[in-house]
Specification:
With about 140 residues, the chain is an alpha+beta fold. Helices cover about 30% and strands about 25% of the residues. The chain has three helices and five strands. It has a five-stranded antiparallel beta sheet, covered by helices on one side. The protein starts with a strand and ends in a 7-residue tail after the last strand.
């Protein structure tokens, strides 16, 4: 079994589904508990979709996605060359408001923040780098 998954998307959203399918197969092949795998997949989908929706300058950004599994931990890294955006600096949505009164946006990032054990962002040499990790046990207890 591979303990590392890497995929580079340079064709915009066209490659998103294939990347998600590959990540899902990778997590399943490594016997990651379903609940943990679902959380990681939601995070990947949300982050990469946001890059393609909001990180575009001229042409599509290139997005590199990596997942590594070691010692009960899934570590993810997403690197893109889109416009600078620190998702951790975005204010959390006011979930106390009704859906009608709530502004659009921010809920997906909120879900990512709440479901991952740690998230870090930095920008270096014109690239955004978002790292996250999620701990898991062989029996999904989270």
């Amino acid at each position: 079994m591979a303990t590392e998954f890497n995929c580079t998307l340079s064709d915009g959203n066209a490659g998103l589904q294939a990347m998600m399918d590959g990540a899902e197969a990778f997590l399943a092949d490594n016997a990651i508990p379903d609940r943990t795998a679902a959380r990681v997949l939601i995070a990947l989908d949300e982050i990469v979709s946001n890059i393609f929706a909001h990180g575009v300058r001229e042409g599509e950004p290139t997005v590199a996605v990596g997942l590594r599994i070691a010692e009960g931990r899934i570590a993810g890294e997403i690197v893109d060359d889109g416009i600078a955006f620190d998702p951790l600096a975005a204010p959390p949505p006011d979930t106390g408001l009704s859906l009608e009164d709530r502004p659009i946006g921010g809920l997906g990032l909120h879900i990512v923040r709440e479901t991952m054990d740690e998230i870090r962002y930095d920008r270096d040499h014109g690239q955004n780098r978002l790292r996250f990790h999620k701990m898991f046990a062989l029996k999904d207890s989270d």
